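Appendix B, Record 12. Input sequence as logged:
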Amino acid sequence: MMDIRDNISIRCNDVRVWFQDIGPKLAQELLDGNYDKNRSLRKTYVAQLAKVMSDGRFDSLNGQTVLIDSSNRLFNGQHRMNAIVESGVTLPFLVVQSDHAVESYKTIDTGTKRLVADALRDMPNAPTVASVARPICCMDWGSTPLASCIQGKFTVNHMAVDSALVVDYAHAHYDEIMRIVHLTDRVRKVLGVPIRAIGTAFWLIDKCNEVSMLDEFVDELAKPAPDSKTVTAFKTYIIKAHGDRSRKPNYSMTVGMLLNGYERFIEMDESTAMFNKHRMWFDRYDKRLEAYRARKAQGGE
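Logged structural output:
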């Protein structure tokens, strides 16, 4: 292992702190001395970190430390070190060496987890933004089918989208996200449907159709007594479905219901027989999402 005396460090009692460039070789040396009571390794999380590191988006100096003891046993940082080995990159880290690392380990990662909404507090209505931004990021920037997108799967090998990317997406697409948030807020209490499902369906409607009548659809949904008989029937249908706790629709089913309701609205179909065709419309919008991505890749969006 590299001699720590070659690095500028600060000592305080039995603790030393310094910055260290860590590449695959040094990371593997640290992993070879991994604390045997460390938590189980989450390989999917390692793959996610490795992808972020390879893309140059990993902030290795965000305040998180790599904790070792006087024998260089690794107590905190095993997922990051595994990601360094997997990605092959070299990054600077803040290393803490403590004679009391065993005791310190008991207090690591025991606090409240920071949520995406916490990182988006500079945006209005951050909780709703966080709810809708994750699936939208997967749909717009990801490469997976719609069913995987709504589960937060970002790439074809089912890698989950990381929170930092969701935050970056929300800021980069502020106007688009806030439009979906505004429309979602107008109907979420009326319908009693999860925010994430509404935001997902509304984004698909807006992006995957040559002409969108989303605003008109939302206007009707928000009315206590819609002018459209189709919307009146649809509201009754979806509210009843979500009111039945024993058979409450799941996320993808709810998205399909909303897409189905929109299609019935623009076709001015006043029958209720087609409201149960949510799976059909979910699949059709999966195809439309593919077409949208193709246009975007060719510079059409």
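Residues 4-105 form one domain.
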